[in-house]
Structures are given as structure tokens and as C-alpha cells.
Amino acid sequence: MTTVIIIIAVALVVAAAVYFFLVRGGSAGGGRGLRSRFGPEYDRVVARHGGDTKAAEQELGERVKLHGDLEKRPLTEAARADYTARWARTQEQFVESPQQALNEADALLADLSRDRGFPAGESFEDRTAALSVHHAHHVDGYRRVHTARNDGTGTEEMREAFVDARGLFDALLADGPATRDHGNRQLTKERGTS
Predict the structure, then answer these.
(1) TM segments (predicted)?
(2) Sign of the dihedral through C-alpha 12, 18, 21, 23
């Protein structure tokens, strides 16, 4: 009888631990799940909260609740071609006018994200918060382009921001996962010869 009670008690403890892990730690609301989902964005938010992981995880959990069910609108082939052409023109412009190219890239990413169904509001932070839920590994490039437009960043830093922003452009343009393509290699090549 005592053995049966011990087995039941152990089973209850194991079940409670599994429940706690699944509900509190292993879901999108838990630390490990959020860290995996948000990648570098997780670290950025923790740093912004002064290392307070609980506050950062609460913010990220709220982002998931607000924007996790967002359905991306598909792009027509014409719209996809237009965005691709706009990016190519912006990339070419970078050689002559990096600052103007960053302004164009910032506007282009805002337009593309809006057309794909992300919030179109005036707040850049609201837009990047929604984008981070679906494209956390690429949103930092967009953030860097947006910031570098006006902060006196050097040309090399602007180039790096522009190249990183291409990841978000590709992710928003594609129906599947983002890939980096010849566009970044071309910018690197042009930048190296000027």
C-alpha cells in the first residue's frame, strides 16, 4: 500500500512538472520559447529592460498576443515585381547617395510591410513590434536603417544596415522563408569599387 502511494505521489509530481513546463516554460509565453522565437530581438528587449527578463518576456508575450495571429496578405506578381524594382533602384542609389538610399529603403519596407498586412500606423515601434513576432531575425536591419537615416552614421555603417535590411525585404517579399540573394553581393561589389 505504501509503495502504491509513493508511486502515485511521484506520478503527480512528474505530471505537475510536465504541466508547468508546457504551460509556463515551453510555450510561446515562456522564456525558452520566447528566446527561441525572437532570437536577437529577445536579447535587445531584455537589454532595454535593464536585464529584467521577466519584464522583457511580458512585453514579448504581449506582442505575440497582439500580432501572433496576423494573417499576411499575399502580393500580386505585379506588386512583387514593383517592390523588387524599387529595391534595385534604391540599392543603385546607395553608391551616389547613401543617406537618400536609406530614406528610400525605410519607406519601401514600411510600404511592403503594410501591403503584407502589418500595422500601417504612424508608430515605427508598433510596426517593428508586429514585424518582430513574424520576422524577429530580420527586424533589426530595418531598425538600423530607420535609425541610421538621421543619426550621422558613417557610410560603412549605413551600408551594413542596408545589407541587413535586405533580409527583412526578402522575408516580406517571399511567401516562404527569407533568403539572401545576389542583391547584397552586388551592393558589396559596388561599394568596394567606388
Answers:
(1) 6-23
(2) negative
Cell of 7: 508511486
Query: Among candidates 64, 158, 155, 55, which has minimal Cα distance to 106?
Result: 158
Quick: pLDDT tens for 121-179: 778 999 999 999 999 999 999 999 999 887 777 889 999 999 999 999 999 998 633 33
Complete DSSP assignment for 24-38: IISSTTSHHHHHHHH
Give the residue extent of every domain in the chain. 2-67, 77-193
Residue type for position 181 = D
Q: How many residues does the chain have?
A: 194
- Smallest Cα–Cα separation from 180: which of 190, 158, 165? 165
Question: Do the Cβ atoms of 136 and 40 come closer than 8 Å?
Answer: yes
* Rounded-to-integer distance, Cα 78 and Cα 24, Å: 45
What is d(CA 90, CA 101) in angstroms, rounded to the nearest whole number?
A: 5
